[in-house]
Specification:
The chain is an alpha/beta fold. It has one domain: P-loop containing nucleotide triphosphate hydrolases (Rossmann fold, 3-Layer(aba) Sandwich). The chain has four helices and seven strands, in the order βαβαββαβββα. Strands 1-7-6-2-5-4-3 form a seven-stranded mixed beta sheet. A hairpin with a 2-residue loop joins β3 and β4. α1 packs across α2. It is globular, with a radius of gyration of 14 Å. The two termini are about 15 Å apart.
Length: about 160
């Protein structure tokens, strides 16, 4: 399954993340790929806003992992935001406990997931963001698991 959408502004990228949050469930893993400045963090912030994260949501580039509390249909859930940009070896993903975040009471967003692709679950949603600076962004949603097709349908009508 693959869906494509164009975002003309940071606000639209943010809003698209917020819309995606409406179909996320505990246990979901969303891998965000794109060059520096593509809008991965803006997209993640939109997801956070849609899930009711209170306070600023910043990129965890230096801390690697930020965790937030949020609600899905009245149930507390954790939003775990990872940035693996600084990792140099796949084994480092295991050392920081990447797989510990793939649990039913959490949604995990991973920026720069390429280094850890062997650890990602098969039902992971991949979101590629192409473009940078003032350019429009092409945002491509890929998933191997067919359940995503039904869940994402409302975004692409």
């Amino acid at each position: 399954m693959e869906y494509r959408v164009t975002s003309l502004t940071v606000e639209q990228t943010h809003e698209l993340g917020k819309q995606l949050s409406e179909c996320l469930l505990g246990g979901d893993v969303v891998a965000l790929t794109g060059d520096l400045g593509a809008g991965k963090t803006a997209f993640a912030q939109g997801i956070g806003k849609g899930l009711g994260v209170v306070g600023p949501m910043t990129s965890p580039t230096f801390t690697l992992i930020h965790e937030y509390e949020c609600l899905i249909k009245g149930t507390k859930i954790r939003l775990i935001h990872m940035d693996l940009y600084r990792l140099r070896h796949p084994e480092e993903a295991e050392v920081i406990g990447i797989e510990d975040a793939f649990v039913e009471d959490a949604i995990c967003l991973i920026e720069w997931p390429e280094i850890a692709e062997d650890y990602l679950p098969d039902d992971c949603l991949n979101v590629e963001i192409h473009g940078s600076g003032e350019m429009p962004r092409e945002i491509i949603f890929h998933a191997k698991d067919s359940s995503w097709e039904q869940r994402l349908e409302f975004l692409f009508k």
